[in-house]
Amino acid sequence: DVKVTQSSRYLVKRTGEKVFLECVQDMDHENMFWYRQDPGLGLRLIYFSYDVKMKEKGDIPEGYSVSREKKERFSLILESASTNQTSMYLCASSHPPPNEQFFGPGTRLTVL
Amino acid sequence: AQSVTQLGSHVSVSEGALVLLRCNYSSSVPPYLFWYVQYPNQGLQLLLKYTSAATLVKGINGFEAEFKKSETSFHLTKPSAHMSDAAEYFCAVRGANSKLTFGKGITLSVRP
Questions:
Q1: Which three-class secondary structure state does DSSP give residue B62?
Q2: Cβ B90 vs Cβ B47: under 8 Å
Q3: Element of type H or E holding A70
Q4: What distances in angstroms separate CA A52 from CA A26, A29, A56, A96, one per listed residue?
Q5: Which chain A residues have a beta carbon less than 8 Å from that of B46?
Q6: Which of A3, A19, B1, B56 lies most in the core, judged by the most C-beta atoms within 10 Å?
Q7: Could you read off the pLDDT of A68-80 as tens digits, one per residue?
Q8: Is A42 in contact with B102 (Cβ distance < 8 A)?
């Protein structure tokens, strides 16, 4: 069974803190993605990666960075958390066409 | 560029009734299309996918979808709704790269 895991299901942080969200997949997929999900806005792509050490900005990269040092692991970093980054964060991975994405369970982040 | 339109944000049906969730897409390349389901506080799970083979696609949990190129549609149906079908449903289209573009999602409620 394919598996994408995320380090935390729920996370509460303070404004200004540096936040790390970790994602691990066990399917040897090349592609990995980070989304945020907000009510009424659907899924919005933050960053994605086609290979180790490669990354590309998605639709809303401001305030975020990513790291992919190993093929199976893709980290999302909030350099200085702000209240408007309170959201559900979803990680996904995919393999070559048809590129269906497999999702982790999500991390609900609250920034106070 | 790719886009997905899911009209409306909420659909309510009675248990045993037909489920119809609409999806229209726009794509500059032959599309791959997907339907995902999300249960509360969980990640997205793939229901079914269209990858240019049969235009009628069967998925899990009794759902199916029909690709209609002339109408640029990929509507999701299930003949008889079950209480366990209550969830949020997302339609997505794959673009020229490996990214997916998601619709805003539609919440399905099932009345007893």
A1: helix
A2: no
A3: strand A64-70
A4: 15, 11, 12, 15
A5: 100-102
A6: A19
A7: 999 999 999 999 9
A8: yes
